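Working notes for the structural subgroup meeting. M.R. asked for a predicted model of this chain before we commit to crystallization trials. I am recording the input and output together here so anyone reviewing the notebook later can reproduce the run.

Input as submitted:
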Amino acid sequence: MGLVYATFELINADDQALARRHVIGEEEIKRMNVNMLVDSGAYMMAINEAIQEYMQLPLQGRKRSVMADGSVIELDFVGPINIIFKNRSSVCRAVVLPGNSEPLMGSIPMEEMDVLIDPKRNELIVNPEHPDMAQLSLKLIGTKRA
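Returned structure, recorded in token form:
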């Protein structure tokens, strides 16, 4: 299986909230389509500084992050971001990679959207077992029910 890329619509969720309250117009909501590396080995979504500059997502703090080469660096994390892929969506935060680094989609938002990597077609797909709506797994493990 090679590298898998998919296009996601990213929307500034704070802008959406302001538009719902009629503080800004719908046309002022910052959004963009971004082709991202789909990386099921990463937990979070990662955007780069260019995407952050355009989206103007609020800074929520800093996190230490382990990079693919094993190095550990501190990165800003921002959000909330509404992510849309086909008929699926997720609201999450993202770490901001330096410069024009390649953005990537991690496993946490992928789980919430109920999307899968299809190794035969080498692409991201909506879970065929739940084509109309995402299905979340909320299993209680190791607890007794009353």
